[in-house]
Automatic annotation (TrEMBL):
InterPro entries: dTDP_Gluc_deHydtase, NAD(P)-bd_dom, NAD(P)-bd_dom_sf, Sc_DH/Rdtase_CS. It comes from Candidatus Methylobacter favarea. One of its GO terms (molecular function) is dTDP-glucose 4,6-dehydratase activity. GO terms for biological process: nucleotide-sugar metabolic process. PROSITE patterns: ADH_SHORT. This is dTDP-glucose 4,6-dehydratase. Belongs to the NAD(P)-dependent epimerase/dehydratase family. dTDP-glucose dehydratase subfamily. It holds the Pfam family GDP_Man_Dehyd. Keywords: Lyase, NAD. Its cofactor is NAD(+). It catalyses: dTDP-alpha-D-glucose = dTDP-4-dehydro-6-deoxy-alpha-D-glucose + H2O. CDD domains: dTDP_GD_SDR_e. The keyword NAD applies. It comes from the Bacteria.
């Protein structure tokens, strides 16, 4: 059994689905179901006894301790977080609460559990903390990509809160010997991505005949990885990573935001042309820039590739085509997110139990 936190969100849900497609080892999924948690992402697992869902907070020490004692997982994978930079700018409090205080409390529960494990289970246990490349700050045009030794220079409340959680995880290894692994991944895209983030927002707005907002000059660069490649990297680090180490994850796929928007528009022109025959790029609208907007992220994935033998399966071209096609094929999922109906999914379909 593994415990996954935040497994109803974008990457966590993809991870749970992927895990159970590759293994019969059960997953205990603990998720608070904040606005970003959507159990519809896991609808295909209904009735599957290998998946146990529980609504709860990683910062609830008693709850997490009880769960650990009851289910005795061999690993904890922590996806739970507030994850949207724009939200962190307008309301940082929840980021501090979940990403810093929540991670700290979870570490305390996990440390107590790990301390009491039998001597044969103790060295096998792992806590894998899922983090972001944004902790490294912003790169200039000619700078080399982020390696694991790049200094932390977070610029947004989101990235600062993730950086703080990474430091706590690191400290629990150095101080208490907790066998932790940390992964720092670049921007993900793919199925079940909440349409507040760039790629799903562009797809959803384009189809709804709404403006496609591009911040500032649109020349900010992100390094994009298909979400299922992130999931396979996490499985690889969990299986082969060395405790106490951090691994950067990325697909060597830097693109400017405006280029991303043009690619998505062209795919939609091909797959679902506008009724008036005009190109979707006509809907692009340049808007005021994000405060403190990081200019460029780029991941050097050499360590995970060379030490652990991981490689992404998708190129950006194959991954983005799959993504746009998924959104076109899953319009009811989009409609439920936009209307807020996805939040009733628990009452309609699941019974939370502790
Ligand atoms: P998301 O916002 O889609 O999902 C986060 C999930 O965590 C949601 O299901 C939410 O309900 C849950 N959650 C929030 N607070 C919680 C709490 N206190 N206790 C339990 N559950 C809680 O985020 P995501 O994009 O899936 O990101 C998952 C993780 O990966 C985050 O830690 C994020 O920092 C990291 N990450 C994301 C990206 C990306 O591009 N999205 C890239 C690198 C790293
Ligand atoms: P986002 O998906 O929010 O991820 P992050 O900020 O974590 O990288 O944004 C990706 C990039 O796209 C970022 O440079 C901000 C930009 N952006 C827009 O230009 N317009 C938008 O509407 C959004 C949501 C983001």
């Amino acid at each position: 059994m593994i415990l996954v936190t935040g497994g109803a969100g974008f990457i966590g849900a993809n991870f749970v689905l992927d895990w159970l497609a590759n293994s019969d080892e059960p997953v205990l999924n603990l998720d608070l179901l904040s606005y970003a948690g959507n159990l519809e992402n896991l609808a295909s697992l209904q009735g599957d006894k290998r998946h146990i869902f529980l609504q709860g907070d990683i910062g609830d020490f008693d709850l997490v301790s009880r769960l650990l004692a009851k289910h005795q997982p061999r690993a904890v994978i922590n996806f739970a977080a507030e994850s949207h930079v724009d939200r962190s700018i307008y309301g940082p409090e929840e980021f501090i609460q979940t990403n810093i205080v929540g991670t700290f409390r979870m570490l305390e529960s996990v440390r107590a559990y790990w301390n009491n494990l039998e001597s044969n289970a103790k060295p096998e246990f792992r806590l894998l903390h899922v983090s972001t490349d944004e902790v490294y700050g912003s790169l200039g045009k000619g700078d080399t990509a982020f390696s694991e030794t790049h200094r932390y220079e977070p610029n947004s409340p989101y990235s600062a809160s993730k950086a703080a959680s990474d430091h706590l995880v690191r400290a629990y290894h150095h101080t208490y010997g907790l066998p932790v692994l940390t992964t720092n991944c670049s921007n993900n895209y793919g199925p079940f991505h909440f349409p507040e983030k760039l790629i799903p927002l562009i797809i959803v707005n384009a189809l709804a005949d709404k403006p496609l907002p591009v911040y500032g000059d649109g020349l900010q660069i992100r390094d994009w990885l298909y979400v299922k490649d992130h999931c396979s990297a996490i499985r690889c680090v969990l299986a082969k990573g060395r405790p106490g180490e951090t691994y950067n994850i990325g697909g060597w796929n830097e693109k400017a935001n405006i280029e991303i928007v043009h690619i998505v528009c062209s795919l939609l022109d091909e797959l679902r042309p506008r009724a008036d025959g005009k190109p979707y790029k006509d809907q692009i609208s340049y808007v005021t820039d994000r405060p403190g907007h990081d200019r460029r992220y780029a991941i050097d994935a050499g360590k995970i590739e060379q030490e652990l033998g991981w490689k992404p399966a998708e190129t950006f071209e194959t991954g983005i085509r799959k993504t746009v096609t998924w959104y076109l094929d899953n319009q009811p999922w989009v409609a439920n997110v936009l209307s807020g109906a996805y939040r009733d999914w628990v009452a309609r379909n699941y019974e939370s139990r502790v």
